[in-house]
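Run folding on both entries below.
>entry_1
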Amino acid sequence: MAEAFVTLTSEIQAKSPSISFINSNKEKPLLFADDYTFKLNKITTTTKYWICTIKDCAAKVHTDLNNGLMKTVGNHSPLPGK
């Protein structure tokens, strides 16, 4: 049973995007993950909610208050020419 947990944890970590942060020209926080940019949408007592900056894209990222990746939600809308 412990082996299955270790395997599942390794698979999840392998699929997790690496993330980085910068501030926009307007000093708003931006998150970069998998070549996409996300803007901060909402902060609760435990979670920061990020939304993709591409119009009508459903992809989202959730981080903890220390900017640790919690999960990704949805898929990116297909882009023309990508």
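>entry_2
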Amino acid sequence: MAFSTTVSQRKHIKRKAPRGFLKRVFKRQKPHLRLETSGDLLVHLNCLLFVRRLAEESRMNAFESKCGVIKKEHVQAAAKVILKKSRG
């Protein structure tokens, strides 16, 4: 029997937040900032929720313009809408 020449595209999904990386970034950007123990996890969660909302809004923008591919313009328009809603 011959082995298959195709390579699996499946990647391992990390189940944990990159806490060390997040803490290092916070220390570099804002050394005077003091976060409580789970503060970095809340920031990571907020980032994930923002990216998910950005993807959904971008997909809707692409669908409205009858485009099958999400383009840079769709993402930028979605980011403007999301950031306006979060501020006001």
